[in-house]
Every structure is written in structure tokens, then in C-alpha cells.
Amino acid sequence: MQKSDILFQKLGIEFHNLGTGIKIFGVDIAFYGIVIALGMVLGVLLAQWQAKRTGQNPETYLDFALYAIIISVIGARLYYVAFSWSDYKDNPLSILDIRSGGLAIYGGVIAGALTGIVYCKIKKINFGLLADTSIFGLLLGQIIGRWGNFFNREAFGMYYDGLLSMQLNLKHVDGDYTRSLQSLTARYADKPEALKRIIEIRENTKWIDGAEYISVHPTFLYESVWNLCLLIFLIFYSKHKKFDGELVTIYLIGYGLGRFWIEGLRTDQLFLWGSPLAVSQLLSGALVIIAGAFLLIRRVRLKKS
Fold this sequence. Notes:
Layout lengths: L2 E6 L4 E7 L1 E4 L2 E4 H23 L4 H25 L22 H19 L3 H26 L13 E4 L11 H7 L4 H12 L2 E3 L2 E6 L2 H19 L8 H18 L15 H26 L1
Antiparallel strand pairs: 1-2, 1-5, 3-4, 5-7, 6-7
Helix pairs in contact: 1-2, 1-4, 2-3, 3-4, 4-7, 4-8, 7-8, 8-9
């Protein structure tokens, strides 16, 4: 697997000859997959810890996870493919190859929520309580999982040369940065803002030790840190929650706010079909409004009662 440097020059942090995976008995294993798997395992353990902390049976969450993880991965992949179909239509079999990336967290969250609803119906469990407990595992999975994007040199933002800027070898990032201008213009004909950001990155490359690098926002890092702060808040707040479902509602507001901002920085957005609108940014905004209204209504009703 290819190796290159990933640099955070202004922080004095440099990762040299960092590959995208390892070989085990001649088989390529992507770091992306390893990181995602690690996030899932630790996420289940954290959800079980929270279950025990709140007097529930931890085994319920292991049982639920066996279904939810599989269906969520499928949902995350289908969401990604649905909004980037042009990359797969000529080779549908490539849909099955997720080792190099191509999972959208919102697809996973939607699929996981639907799985939870069905699971609770069958097991006669309170969905709000299940969601409040599972959200700890989901958040930890997101915190860790975003580092898969680091190893894949993806999910970064627009041109940036400030304190937290990340430098990536131009040869080892998405093809948009090495395509001809004519090809790039055709690809983003209906997305002028995205085209502008990509061109700005290309026009501001720098040479480091004989190689050409782009300098960008490490948006994967922003989201990982944002989610860590949200997780810490929910852990401390959980003992003071007013109703089942409150923690997952706060998650939707908190994650939605962060994702709306971070998605606005990215250059690899998924777009609503035939439009320049970033679908995850639209969904984030909608979730913040809906979840915020729901939380307000529930709080007012609780206060009255």
C-alpha cells in the first residue's frame, strides 16, 4: 500500500512514510477498516458500561449491536453510493468495495435508528431508553472512526494555511486535485462553489522535500474533537436527564450543529441530486430544528405537569 507523509507543519507534527494499511499473510488490510472496527468494538463496550451504570442489562446492548452494526454499515454505504452514483454507475461491483472508504455516517445513523425501532418492538423495550444508552457507543464510534479518514487522506476541508493546517502529498489524495481543468470543470459544472474550492487548493500547493503538497483544513479532526466534547457533556448530563429520549435528542442537536459547520468547510461533499446543495448539511440543519423543537416541547410539557 502507498506511503507518504502527512504533515501539520505549524504544530511541528509530522507523520513520515505513513501507509494506508498493512499486509498480513500477503493480504492488504486497510487502516480505515481497522479503525472503523475498533470504533465499533469500543462503542459497544461503552454502551454496555452506560447500561450497567443506569441499572439495565448490558447484554441487551451486545445483542442489539450484532444487528445494528451490520445494518448500519449497509445503510452508510447505500447513503454514500446514492449521493455519488456517478462514481459507481459504470462499475456497480465497486459498491461492494468499502476498504478504501465510502461510508456516510448519516446513512448509518438512519439505518441504526430503524433497526432500533424494530428491535424494541420485538423485544418490548423502551426505544427512548435504548437510544439514550446506545448514543454513547455511537459517539465513541464516530470519534474513533473519523481517524480512518486521516489514514485515507480524505474528508478534509478547503484551502487553509493557519495553525491547524494539514499538508498532504498531492499524488496521494483524491483524483480531483490532479485532473485536467477541463475535466474538473465538466465534473462540477452545476457545483460552482465546490469547483472554486478545489481550484483554490490546487493553486496554493507548496513544495516540501521535492514533493508537491496541498494545505487544507483537517475537518476529520474537527469532527472527532467536537464529538468528544459532546460525549463528555452527555456522560455528565446523563444523570440529570428528564425523560427517556432526551440524550439522543441532545445528540441530534449537538452533532447537527457541529456537522453543519464542518460540512461547510469540506470539499468532498455529497450533493443533493442535480443541485449544488450539500445533502449532509441540509440534513444537519433539519435535525437541529426538529430535535430542538421536540426538546423544547417536551421540556415545556414536563414543567407544566
